[in-house]
Amino acid sequence: MPAQIGHMRIILAALFSLVLLGVAAPSAIPPVIPPTGYVRTHDVDLAYWVYGAKRGTTPVIAVNGGPGLSHIYMMQNDVWLRIAREREVVLYDQRGTGRSTRIVRGASQSMAAQVADLDALRAHLGFKRFDLVGDSYGGMIAIAYAAAHPQHVAKLVLSDSVASWNGIVHLLPDVFPDVEAADAAAMKRLGPDSDAAAQRSLRDHFKMIFYSPELRDRYLAHAKDLGYTPAVGAAVAKATASLDLMSALPKFRFPTLVINGRYDMNVAPLTAWRMYRAIPGARIVFFEHSSHLPSYEEPDRYVRVLDDFFNGR
Predict the structure, then answer these.
(1) How far apart are CA 210 and CA 216, in angstroms?
(2) Of 294, 278, 273, whose CA–CA distance to 246 is shortest?
(3) What is the DSSP string of 50-92?
(4) CB-side exposure of 115: number of CA atoms within 13 Å?
(5) What's the whole-number average pLDDT of the chain?
(6) What's phi and psi for 291, nearest 5 deg?
(7) Angstrom distances, CA of residue 86 to CA of 13, 149, 173, 303
(8) Judging by DSSP bridges, how do beta strands 89-92 and 45-51 pair with one another?
(9) Residue 67: cis peptide before it, omega within 30 degrees of 0
(10) Three-class DSSP category at 279
(11) How far apart are CA 67 and CA 266, in angstroms?
(12) Could you count the other beta carbons within 10 Å of the beta carbon of residue 123?
């Protein structure tokens, strides 16, 4: 076992022991750990993290949102560690973000490239079939992957996700005109193309995607660096601007769960409802005390809902 994998397993074993003993709070923030390994493709070295162990259950790969963010925003509580008690859970940093910055100059940021990266990760891990979770923009990658490689998808979860940028019901400007105005002023002051402006805009965006002000403040106090790479975000947005995956949804034949925060003003519930209605046999769950991050605002229920779905309940 490589040293860094052993290091990670020791940390996780300690965390799981604390949870079982009731020492760790359900919302405990996991320590930042080195990647389990890298998948080396023609374009990029993709960093990935494996939580849990092989238990005879279907493994999970969770795809984070953005675009341009690393997976770290999803690790601001122990939700994925708790889901990993019964199965392997894998997260990774998309090309050009986080720990996946060893990338060929000029490499594509197209959806086809993102799908190829995810399949390279699957093949590297030896997963014939796996449960796929897409969070926010990560849902677009998950839908594109499921359409291209349905034989590898056991179950699909779309969490506050989108099938196209043009299909989003996006209400932030209507609900948070004050935050939007302050952000616009900051962009003008800092320079619209500056990294400082992009980082400030990201944090302003996160101020608008919580149902609970207390949880919002706690999240932002702890999440000092969300692993945002503005150039990657812009490149992905440009490459996928006209992409519309809604037509792929009626062809899905694997169990699919669509979930959304009831008060998500970034990706309003009507977005989820339309995807749910398009997928044969899909299930939908709304989180009544959440905005865009139900995994953070209602972690206990989020774990319960995903565990039940993965376990066939």
Answers:
(1) 6
(2) 278
(3) EES---SSPPEEEE--SSS--GGGGGSSSHHHHHTTSS-EEEE
(4) 17
(5) 91
(6) -105, -120
(7) 13, 25, 41, 11
(8) antiparallel
(9) yes
(10) coil
(11) 14
(12) 12
Give the whole-angstrom CA distance, residue 155 versus residue 6.
30
Structure tokens at 299: 């972690």
Distance (Å, rounded) from C-alpha 53 to C-alpha 160? 27
Q: What is the pLDDT of residue 23?
A: 35
What are the tokens at 53? 């162990």
**Domain 37-169+222-310 - what CATH class?**
alpha beta
Q: What's the token pair of residue 232?
A: 């990657």
Distance CA 265, CA 210 (A): 9
Return the structure tokens found at 131: 């449960």
Give the largest CA-CA distance in the chain. 55
Phi, psi of 293 (to 5 degrees): -125, 70
Token pair 């099938």 in the structure block, residue:
163
Give the tens place of pLDDT for each residue, 163-199: 999 999 999 999 999 999 999 999 889 987 888 888 9
Structure tokens belonging to residue 271: 């977005």
Both tokens of 221, joined, read: 């106090």
pTM above 0.85, yes or no: yes
User: Measured between alpha carbons, how far is 84 from 50 in angstroms, rounded to an integer?
Assistant: 9
| DSSP letter string, 134-187 | EETHHHHHHHHHHHH-GGGEEEEEEES--SBSTT----HHHH-HHHHHHHHHHH
Q: Is residue 13 very low, low, confident or very high in pLDDT (cuts 50, 70, 90)?
A: very low
Is residue 210 classed as helix, strand or coil in its secondary structure? Answer: coil
Mean pLDDT across 34-55: 95
| Closest C-alpha among 25, 28, 59, 46 to residue 113 | 46
Q: Which amino acid is at 248?
A: A
For the chain, how many residues are written? 313
